[in-house]
Amino acid sequence: MADRFLTVTVSQLNTYLRSKMEEDPLLSQIFVVGEISNFTNHYKSGHLYFSLKDDRAVVKAVMFAQHARRLRFVPENGMKVLVRGRVSIYEAGGQYQIYAEDMQPDGLGALNMAYEQLKKKLEAEGLFAQERKKTLPLYPQRIGVITSPTGAAVHDILSILARRFPVAEVVFCPVLVQGEGAAPQLVRALRQMNRYGGVEIIIIGRGGGSLEDLWAFNEESVARAVADSRVPVISAVGHETDYTICDFVADVRAPTPSAAAELAVPEQTEILFTLRYQQRRMAQNLRAMLESQRQRLDYLLLSSPLQRPELLTAEKKEELAALWEQLQRAEQALADEKKKELQQAAEHLQALSPLAVLGRGFSVVYGRDHQPLKSARDVERGERLEIILSDGTLLAKVEEKRDNNGNQQNDDL
């Protein structure tokens, strides 16, 4: 019974089904609409793995790196997309899946989706914040211009700069402004302007075009190069209604390249008008100041001190006399005070003088060698003494010695 049926291995079965699917023209090029789920980005390999689902079914899908690199937006879970690819079987797992070659957001273009995603990302990082934007210098001496060497934009910028402020030097860096190599050239030009250009302002931009034409100015690398610039950047991309990521990151956004040139430099005729106005104001102020000083001088010349200087000298003489009198009084008061102090010191010295002591009934007795006697033991009977009184001197001879109790003292004791 088993001989009537074909017996195959699992691998052979999966290979057979794969070949059948790949031979089917309907499955070799198919468009599938669905919602992304289970999205995985293998950053090392660059492959994308995800599922597509609707309200009733799910199918697995894979997009290899060579196709994923061409995506303009970042796929996310919950995003509804239109996938173009082929259907086949993954033999090792025995599961059919879609091998995606292209993907577009359903209902919104890939460029629009990429634009909105990058705008949201950079805004969250603070790259659009007003407080980080630099102020443009009033009178720049060197201006950097980054744009295409062909087209109307470079002509408009250079002609307006030359007309409005011809003293400024222009450093022009020609670049591609659309296509594959445009973004790297824009980034390189911005960095070179910062390092070697010596410029005070950078104008970066191009003329109008479609979203695809302007896309180089929506690249993340360009946006970050503008944000990293030490020199203030004016973004002038497209027409007035065109907004790029570069416009949001730049320090100033100009609606057109011509407007960027007008924002970068002042109008020389306006400067000349201002200078002439200030010159007139200075001349008027100088004349007014001179007239005021002349009137003040006339007033001083008519004043009484200059008309009758003797009045001024008389007044000063009176002041000098008053000061002299005041000085004399101060000198007399000081002399009286010092005289009183001297008198008090003399009285104090007089009270301490030995003569004053003698005047109170005391005397000084000198013995041999004219030395003052301090004790009765220092003198002998028969010795001659000299007695000094307040009004004269006595010469005496010791006949007897007594102690304080009146007892007679002997010399041999």
Automatic annotation (TrEMBL):
Q: Where is the OB-fold nucleic acid binding domain?
A: 9-104
Establish whether keyword S-adenosyl-L-methionine is in the entry.
Answer: no
Q: Which reaction does it catalyse?
A: Exonucleolytic cleavage in either 5'- to 3'- or 3'- to 5'-direction to yield nucleoside 5'-phosphates
- Using the UniProt record, name the top-level EC class of this enzyme in a single word: hydrolase
What keywords sit in the KW lines?
Coiled coil, Cytoplasm, Exonuclease, Hydrolase, Nuclease
Would I find Hydrolase among this entry's keywords? yes
- Where, per UniProt, does this protein localize? Cytoplasm
- One family name in Pfam for this protein: Exonuc_VII_L
Indicate where this protein is primarily found.
Answer: cytoplasm
InterPro entries membership: Exonuc_VII_L (IPR003753), Exonuc_VII_lsu_C (IPR020579), OB-fold_nuc-bd_dom (IPR025824)
Any one GO BP annotation for this protein: DNA catabolic process
Highest taxon above the source species: Bacteria
Q: Where is the Exonuclease VII large subunit C-terminal domain?
A: 127-335
Can you cite an annotated GO cellular component? exodeoxyribonuclease VII complex
> Example GO molecular function term?
exodeoxyribonuclease VII activity
**Which family does the UniProt entry place this protein in?**
Belongs to the XseA family.
| Subunit organization | Heterooligomer composed of large and small subunits.
Record function comment? Bidirectionally degrades single-stranded DNA into large acid-insoluble oligonucleotides, which are then degraded further into small acid-soluble oligonucleotides.
Per its UniProt record, what NCBIfam families does this chain match? xseA
Mind telling me what this protein is named?
A: Exodeoxyribonuclease 7 large subunit
User: What species was this sequence derived from?
Assistant: Hydrogeniiclostridium mannosilyticum
**Gene name tied to this protein:** xseA
